[in-house]
Amino acid sequence: MTIYDFNIVKTNGERMPLYHFKDKVVLIVNTASKCTFTPQFEDLQKLYEQYHTHGVEIIGFPCNQFGEQEPGSNQEASSFCQINYGVKFPIVAKLEVNGDNAHPLFDYLKKTAPFQGFDETNFNAKLLKMMITEKSPEWLYGDSIKWNFTKFLIDQEGNVIRRFEPTDELDALKSSIDDLLHQRTSQG
């Protein structure tokens, strides 16, 4: 099984199979427009601009499960990203990433790239853990998505390579993308 076995829904309600992204490195991100991590849209857009021509796609999945930080409609979520951060990568329809109504794609992602724990040496990770403990303790344990802006890196064959938590450094993500692109270049 790969991500190509799943379909997603665009903001206009149209279904889109993820095999549409075959042969590309894909970064899947659950997003929210009213979150402490929302400014990450700026970094994600910069990544998109840097890597898109090299075969990298980013897909934003708005989610309202964490502190109700994505309360608007699908169109409002997408427009917010474009207007405030110049986002050009696809922002799809809102969905749930945890619980009984979680989208099957996110169930697959969580099982394939389980939560590895909080980096206790990272101040922001410590703060996030404290906030989750206080506001949403149900997300603290197991492989659930812990908060908005959790990222999953997918290789060119649709396989989940790595999970990045919202507090992980952008440099680690860039390094992993570079590795995937380099592997493809050296193989072909």
What would you note in describing this structure?
The structure is a single chain. The chain has 188 residues and is of the alpha+beta class. The chain has one domain (3-187): 3-Layer(aba) Sandwich (Glutaredoxin), CATH 3.40.30.10. The chain has helices at residues 40-51, 74-85, 104-112, 123-135, 170-187; strands spanning 7-9, 15-17, 25-31, 56-62, 151-154, 160-164. A four-stranded mixed beta sheet has the order 4-3-5-6, with helices on both faces. A two-stranded antiparallel sheet has the order 1-2. The longest helix is centred in the last third of the chain and has 18 residues, at 170-187. The radius of gyration is 16 Å and the shape is globular. The relative contact order is 0.19.
Q: Please give the radius of gyration in angstroms.
A: 16 Å
CATH architecture: 3-Layer(aba) Sandwich
Percent strand equals: 15-25%
Fourth-tier CATH superfamily name: Glutaredoxin
What's the CATH topology label?
A: Glutaredoxin
Secondary structure tally: strands: 6
Discrete helix count:
5
What's the helical proportion of residues? 25-40%
Count the domains: 1
Structural class: alpha+beta
Distance between the termini: 24 Å
Secondary-structure element series: EEEHEHHHEEH
- Average pLDDT level: 94
Write the layout of secondary structure elements.
Blueprint: E1 7-9, E2 15-17, E3 25-31, H1 40-51, E4 56-62, H2 74-85, H3 104-112, H4 123-135, E5 151-154, E6 160-164, H5 170-187
Parallel strand pairs: 3-4
Antiparallel strand pairs: 1-2, 3-5, 5-6
